[in-house]
Design brief:
The protein is mainly α and 236 residues long. The protein has eleven helices and no strands. The longest helix has 18 residues.
Length: 236
């Protein structure tokens, strides 16, 4: 009889080229408090960058901002809000004319349909007022959880945490609030951020992701929280 064949040991899988190492751990209470204290000192009263004249135009601007830049939305809505700054005026404008105002924004046809539909719903169901609950806001056409959280925060001062692409990146990259999807990151942010920072936390995180913690070539050398950040590939 021949020798028994011996099973070869499988070598450990090599990491794929370009694969970044995951964040080793999460921030503790000290790091969270330190980061938000620094952001607060640098910008005590941060504001959203979407231009609006009232709660209705804020809602419309946020709906239009999905998969679009705030600058691009502002460019289109400056003229729009001069002629349609209430649900009645927007509904009267109609979907076809609305398209002309927002055609420079991505997915403008679907967004025009949603804005007219949500205007109608506000008139018929909410006495032309923007509702103050997340559930009611999410019932509006084109308004998901992120939209609802932005409106609740900016219009009504609620300590809600809207997770867009910038906040998602900052939460995962730094170790502040790792999560596999926006909802997981939102829940973790709500858990770890001290109440005294929550009203403005949404804005600080967005601004940090938009201007410092960029998707490509983040500005780590000038970052206020570089010493706290757990990202292993800092551009120092």
């Amino acid at each position: 009889m021949g020798k028994k064949a011996t099973a070869k040991k499988r070598a450990p899988a090599k990491p794929k080229p370009g694969k970044k190492a995951p964040v080793a751990r999460r921030w503790g209470e000290r790091e969270v408090a330190a980061a938000f204290t620094r952001w607060q000192k640098a910008s005590p009263h941060p504001k959203g960058e979407l231009e609006h004249v009232n709660n209705f135009t804020l809602l419309v601007a946020v709906v239009l901002s999905a998969q679009a830049t705030d600058a691009g939305v502002n460019k289109a809505t400056r003229a729009l809000f001069q002629v349609a700054d209430t649900p009645q005026k927007m509904f009267a404008l109609g979907e076809e004319k609305l398209r002309d105002y927002i055609k420079t924004i991505g997915l403008y046809k679907g967004k025009a349909k949603n804005v007219i539909a949500l205007s109608k719903m506000l008139i018929e169901k909410h006495n032309s007022q923007v509702p103050k609950t997340r559930e009611e806001l999410q019932e509006l056409p084109g308004a998901g959880r992120k939209t609802a959280n932005v409106v609740l925060n900016i219009a009504f001062g609620e300590p809600t945490l809207a997770v867009d692409t910038h906040v998602f990146r900052v939460g995962n990259r730094t170790g502040l609030a790792p999560g596999k999807n926006p909802l997981e990151v939102e829940i973790e942010l709500d858990r770890v951020i001290p109440p005294r920072f929550k009203t403005h936390a949404h804005h600080w995180l967005i601004l940090h992701g938009r201007y410092t913690c960029l998707a490509r070539n983040p500005k780590c050398p000038t970052c206020l929280i570089s010493d706290l950040c757990l990202w292993p590939d800092k551009t120092l």
